[in-house]
Specification:
The protein contains 23 helices and no strands. By secondary structure, the chain is mostly helical.
């Protein structure tokens, strides 16, 4: 008996050693091509985006990121999937949008969308994701980001495996030095950045050292950004390549339909009563508002709550379809909830339009309208899925989200905000409280980006005496000039956008910034 146990233990140890050797060989085989591709990607990332979030090189970075994913697929023997071209095209278009707009909020969300699509594209090429839904994709994106952090040691372990295996045969000392430098440079930069932020005395010494050898302070930022690009790409790829193929989505539709029928049926009745009120108050106008409440005040209360309820309804319907068995009665109730969601969406949009009519446009209000349009289109796809279970809801939803957001991103929303709000401009100060409610908020307009410049310039041409003369603003507001006094909201707008408008270099050239500079430098 003891002999058999010892023999089994020896066999297990031998198998473990074989698996360890195989893993070491795999790590060694991928290190050189993956480290080279990640280093090249990090270099392009730094060249394109360092202190340049909206320049002409932004679409170049998105193309490089897509090429990096394709290269990684070939390194691991996986051919890039053709149906990923749509996501890749959206990424490139979002990069172009960054180059065309001056709205920093839009640029931030464009970059966030590019990142999500990049991770999704990487997972799509390695995973069997035909059965994945929106929730699975979002969960796997979060898991992959966290998993990439947990793989921070992968470049080092892969490099050591590369050095120890037969890959080193025929290599001279120069090869070893090159591998060591490839590992050491990002490591020193990453650890150095942590140490600099951990101790002020050390940080001061590092700054003095850079000054002594005449290295600009931004060089450290460049190297730090390169290290981030290298480690994030290398570690992210290694995690996704190892774990994404193992993700399997089981069929969870095992819940008793009576539970869902009881829960959703009561909610559907409440929704029907609420929707009857919405139709009577807002759409038909047959019912009187409470005493002393205007339509603007009525509209102001509730559109964010209704937006939340619409999103909640979308989640609930998808969850019921995912976790409960098929039932005709349940499908009817879900269709009722979907119909009520359409009415709630229209009610929220109508309230927002009433509020905009009284208080003009802002970026948040436009964003709410865009979100409501996307929710309505998503819910239409859910209705089709309930009626036809084979409907590809995930692909439809992804297409809707991408198309709606691209239209929003390319719309230059600040231009429409300024144009709409300036159309409500009044000469002189509003005298009554009611008039002040509809007066233009110039304080919001001068905080808009360079996208609003054509609308502001057009308004000034139509109303030549609306503001004091701002001729020569560029010389007066230039850096190093004497202190100036802002005499109008237009000058305040020019002051706030001066840095962007005067960025006309080749690397950071931006269409919106250049157009604004041309309009106000005549």
């Amino acid at each position: 008996m003891d002999g058999n146990l010892m023999q089994n233990w020896a066999v297990q140890q031998q198998q473990a050693l074989i698996r360890q050797q195989q893993e070491r060989q795999k790590s060694a085989a991928v290190f050189k091509p993956l480290a080279s591709a990640s280093g090249l990607y990090a270099l392009v990332y730094v060249v394109c985006l360092y202190r340049n979030p909206s320049g002409i090189l932004s679409p170049v970075w998105t193309v490089a990121a897509i090429a990096y994913v394709a290269c990684v697929c070939r390194i691991f023997g996986a051919e890039p999937k053709r149906d990923g071209r749509f996501a890749a095209s959206v990424m490139v278009l979002l990069g172009v949008s960054n180059f065309l707009t001056g709205n920093r909020t839009m640029i931030f969300w464009n970059d966030a969308a590019i990142f999500l699509l990049l991770v999704a594209l990487l997972m799509h090429n390695f995973a069997q994701d035909r059965q994945w839904d929106v929730g699975t994709y979002l969960a796997q994106i979060i898991v992959s980001v966290c998993g990439a952090v947990s793989c921070i040691a992968k470049p080092f372990s892969d490099g050591m495996a590369f050095r120890r295996t037969g890959q080193r045969n025929g290599r001279g000392r120069a090869g070893y030095i090159a591998v060591g430098i490839l590992i050491a440079v990002p490591s020193v930069l990453l650890v150095g950045a942590l140490l600099v932020t951990a101790d002020l005395v050390f940080a001061d010494l590092v700054e003095q050292a850079f000054s002594a050898i005449r290295i600009p302070s931004r060089v450290f930022g460049v190297f730090l950004m390169f290290a981030f690009g290298f480690f994030s790409s290398y570690c992210g790829v290694r995690y996704v390549q190892e774990h994404a193929p193992a993700v399997v989505v089981p069929d969870r539709r095992k819940g008793e339909p009576l539970i869902a029928i009881t829960a959703t049926g009561s909610v559907a009745l409440l929704y029907l009563a609420f929707c009857m009120v919405q139709i009577g108050y807002l759409f038909l106008g047959n019912l009187a508002l409470p005493h002393g409440v205007t339509y603007a005040e009525y509209a102001r209360q509730g559109f964010f709550q209704l937006l939340f309820v619409c999103v909640l309804n979308l989640i609930v319907v998808l969850a019921v379809r995912k976790y409960f068995r098929e039932s005709r009665l349940l499908n009817v109730i879900l269709l009722v909830i979907c119909g009520c969601t359409f009415i709630m969406t229209a009610s929220s949009a109508f309230r927002m339009l009433l509020y905009i009519r009284a208080y003009q446009l802002t970026f948040l209000r436009v964003s709410v309208l865009v979100a409501l349009a996307a929710i309505a289109l998503w819910m239409a796809g859910v209705v089709v899925m309930i009626v036809r279970p084979g409907f590809p809801l995930f692909r439809y939803g992804l297409g809707v989200a991408c198309v709606v957001y691209l239209l929003f991103s390319f719309s230059h929303v600040d231009y429409f905000i300024a144009s709409y709000n300036l159309n409500h401009a009044r000469l002189g100060e509003a005298s009554s409280a009611e008039a002040r409610g509809t007066a233009v908020d110039y304080g919001y307009i001068y905080r808009l980006s360079t996208d609003a410049a054509p609308a502001i310039a057009g308004y000034l041409r139509e109303h030549p005496g609306a503001v004091p003369d701002y001729t020569g603003w560029e010389e007066r507001f230039a850096e190093g000039s004497a202190e100036w006094s802002v005499e109008s909201w237009v000058e305040e707008y020019l002051v706030r956008n001066y840095r962007d408008m005067t960025k006309i270099g080749l690397r950071d050239f931006n269409v919106s910034h250049y157009a604004a500079y041309r309009l106000f430098s005549r």
